[in-house]
Specification:
The complex is a heterodimer.
Chain A (H helix, E strand, L loop, with lengths): L3 E4 L2 E4 L5 E7 L5 E7 L5 E8 L5 E2 L10 E5 L2 E6 L8 E9 L4 E4 L3 E5 L1
Parallel strand pairs in A: 2-11
Antiparallel strand pairs in A: 1-3, 3-8, 4-5, 4-9, 5-6, 7-8, 9-10, 9-11
Chain B lengths: L3 E4 L2 E5 L4 E7 L5 E7 L5 E6 L3 E5 L2 E6 L4 E6 L8 E8 L5 E3 L3 E6 L1
Parallel strand pairs in B: 2-11
Antiparallel strand pairs in B: 1-3, 3-8, 4-5, 4-9, 6-7, 7-8, 9-10, 9-11
Classes of the chains: A mainly beta, B mainly beta.
């Protein structure tokens, strides 16, 4: 499978502030994905992060609001900027493991914005 | 991209009962996975099953790719089976798209 860790596991933030979420994978991967799960909803892809290039964002998500870094093949960060209560969600990073032909997910970061 | 529909949206079972969860796709998928999201939010991989049938303990899954649907069977359900079950597929855009999930509650 894949060992994926995320920090922080949860946080409570004030509106207008920013939070950076870290994702660490136990081995090198080409693509890392960031998803958002709003309360009671399904998972929605925010962006795909490739090492050495800018992230590719899905419709409805923009780099100014969700900047992503991918400094190496095992690590990525997602920042949620200028937060509002509508950003309260679980944010999950994910990787595709070719050996298993499956996508695996980290434990998620539960964010509450007051 | 593809559309993923899951049914039923909610399911309540008595412990020991069996259930079938369904997933329909709007188009052909290259990859099809079933996940269980536990109450803490962790997504657990259950099956990678683009076609055919697989079994893992009390769980099994069948995908009929030509008819664009997949079924997840849970036998002798336990309270620990409670949570949300998602199916997800990858279409031509190579991005994993999730259904809305099925919320399962197993009562003792």
């Amino acid at each position: 499978s894949a060992v994926i860790s995320q920090k922080p596991s949860r946080d409570i933030c004030q509106r207008g502030t920013s939070l950076t979420i870290q994702c660490q994978v136990d081995s090198q991967v080409t693509m890392m994905f960031w998803y958002r799960q709003q309360p009671g909803q399904s998972l929605t892809l925010i962006a795909t992060a490739n090492q050495g290039s800018e992230a590719t964002y899905e419709s409805g998500f923009v780099i100014d609001k969700f900047p992503i870094s991918r400094p190496n093949l095992t690590f990525s960060t997602l920042t949620v900027s200028n937060m509002s209560p509508e950003d309260s969600s679980i944010y999950l990073c994910s990787v595709w493991r070719l050996a298993y032909n499956e996508q695996f997910f980290g434990p998620g970061t539960r964010l509450t914005v007051l | 991209g593809i559309q993923v529909e899951q049914s039923p949206p909610d399911l309540i079972l008595q412990e020991g009962a069996n259930s079938t969860l369904r997933c329909n796709f709007s188009d052909s998928v290259n990859n099809l996975q079933w996940f269980h999201q536990n109450p803490w939010g962790q997504l657990i991989n259950l099956f990678y099953i683009p076609s055919g049938t697989k079994q893992n303990g009390r769980l099994s899954a069948t995908t009929v790719a030509t008819e664009r649907y997949s079924l997840l069977y849970i036998s002798s359900s336990q309270t620990t089976d409670s949570g949300v079950y998602f199916c997800a597929g990858t279409g031509a855009n190579s991005k994993l798209t999730f259904g809305k999930g099925i919320t399962l509650s197993v009562r003792p």
